[in-house]
TrEMBL record:
It holds the Pfam family ELMO_CED12. One of its GO terms (molecular function) is SH3 domain binding. CDD domains: PH_ELMO1_CED-12. PANTHER family: ENGULFMENT AND CELL MOTILITY, ENGULFMENT AND CELL MOTILITY PROTEIN 3. It comes from Circaetus pectoralis (black-chested snake-eagle). GO terms for biological process: actin filament organization; apoptotic process; cell motility; phagocytosis. Signal peptide: none annotated. This is ELMO3 protein. Residues 307-480 form the ELMO domain.
Amino acid sequence: MPPPKDVVKIAIQMVGAIPQLIELQQTKPLASVLKDVCDAWSLPNAERYALQYVDGRQTYITESNRGEIKNGSILRLTTSPDQEAERLYSGIQSNNSDVKTDSLKKLASLSQDVTFAQEFINRNGLKQIFYIVEEGNDTGEMLAHTLKAFMELMEHDFVSWETLSAAFIKKIVSYVNMNAVDASVQQLSLSILENMVPTSRLLFELVKKEVTLDRLLTHLQVTNAQLQLKAMALLIALLLAATDAERRDIMDYLREKNIRQFIHKNIIHSSEPLGDEMAHYLYVLQSVSLNLCERRMRTSMDPYSQEQRELLQSLRQTAFESESEAPGSNFSTERRRSLCAKEFRKLGFMNNSNPAEDLRRAPPGLLALDNMVYFSRHTPNAYSRFVLENSSREDKHECPFARSSIQLTLILCEILHVGEPCSETAQAFYPMFFGQDHFFEELFCICIQLVNKTWKEMRATQEDFDKVLQVVREQITRTLSLKPTSLELFKTRVNALNYSEILKLRQTERLHQEETLAVPVLELRERLKPELLELIRQQRLLHLCEGTLFRKISSRRRQDKLWYCRLSPNHKVLHYGDVEEGVDSPPIESLPEKIPVADMKMLLMGKECPHTKEKSSGKQNKDVLELAFSIVYDVEEYCLNFIAPTRYEFCLWTDGLNVLLGKEMTSERMQTDLDVLLSMELKLRLLDLENISIPDTPPPVPKPPSNLNFCYDFSHAEQ
């Protein structure tokens, strides 16, 4: 007979004593349970003790979290959180440096527990930590433990970052700015400042003033990967908290210091593999940099602005040696205006009498004008060749430079997501972005010449304008998907992907689609599906058995805390637990927490998840919603909440969990994988039918013959 649902069988350990095996009644007050345990070991003062998990984060058991105790859990009888907090509060004030260091080390470990943290903070423990930092001169192990304890205590959000004293902040800043400091102290100091920056404008300004960009760049150039990562994290925090003007100033300064080239050479192409966290920061740096174009992209041209009119006129003057502006020319105003209009028409403006009207559409707004001017000034030969070549063609076949530039700028903004908020989890960046200053403008210069090349290959007329730009968009996106490492490589590849290549790719895709839509082929597809779906199910379960590293993301920031989850080889238990940075694939025995697959009730995704409802405000949570899923398990319906590192992992995990729950796989990745497998299998099956058209209906069965006397008689042949 199974035990009652409110009773769990557990083991309780104590140093120097034989463990107790008890049936814990969840309805019984925790104080009574502790008294029974203490009585069994003849321990007085049961109120001075508490239960704590042996494995994992060694969390204290309280009335609020006792429901999470599972059958088979191993607990430890230990000093109660208030007693431990009191002891460590005294220990960190000791004059004996060994006692003080040991107390701070234990404090850093225990502060991860919310119950202990509350007790320690209630005793004004943070004030003592401030005192150790502000008054101490130690820069080694003791200080590292102090800063680690401070970080863990602040993580629980009991105290606002805005309450920190100026003296404490300046001391933290000094550790970042000093050279002769332990690397672990500098890493922790950078993390503390990174957490402070988003909390208030005042703290942002203080950190920005005290920690110079030069100092951050110095930390970025060290060989210590963790220190490099923390410096990048603080730089990104400053960029995200800055106003548009401040952000522009910071990016201009970084450009002066050639930070992009350094990142391209020493981080992206480093001998060490790029971690997820650094990949995310590089994505944010790329996104922030590209979003500096947003203001110009959303600003329409003002026909009354002298500066903008001069930029527009410079395009005409660079392309044409105008007779109307030659020395000694006596053209009337009307004649001069007529000549200008003719030249603007040759430049490809739709409204040649008032070309500013073409730039009134925003986006791309003034960004298109900036790109055209950059192209004319930095590659004048290519610019003149483009304009003069097309102005000498027949009217129908000329490629309009201005119109193409405006549309191309809009296409590049859409492809590069200019003006969109940074994702909290994305890691996709273009390596070539960091190999080139003025990346957007240089990319435009390559692509506008591609437009002209493709226009000629297509023998296009004005009516084909949209078709040409569709082909160019396809050429750009296909080439970018290859992740070229430099603009030169991008230029080579995108030019190699000419119009005839695009036609071949389209034709291949179309033929594949047509042959897979024939009725007999569709029937064959349906027959093959069950077998291939089973193959996908096995792959998903295998992926869950290998496990994945997940990050804990708070509403304040991307956290460094990691946890790992994997399925047991027999597909019966999910194992999970916290892990340290750098651990790629922890053994299943090291993951203390377990959820039997039999206890899993349902899978929640996106907005349905409890951890997305808690922090569903803010425009940056859209990407988190797309990666969030939760497992509801046990009778009490607890939830294990996930935020997948990528959409790919999200699809594999949600599919795998649906398989364990006996449900259909629903992710878009499942459909993609199924299509790929079906396509491969069909091609193999239809290999002998190449170049043979498959009829929609089977050929008719011929009528039986009028007689069957055509059978050969072997007996006569033998005679």
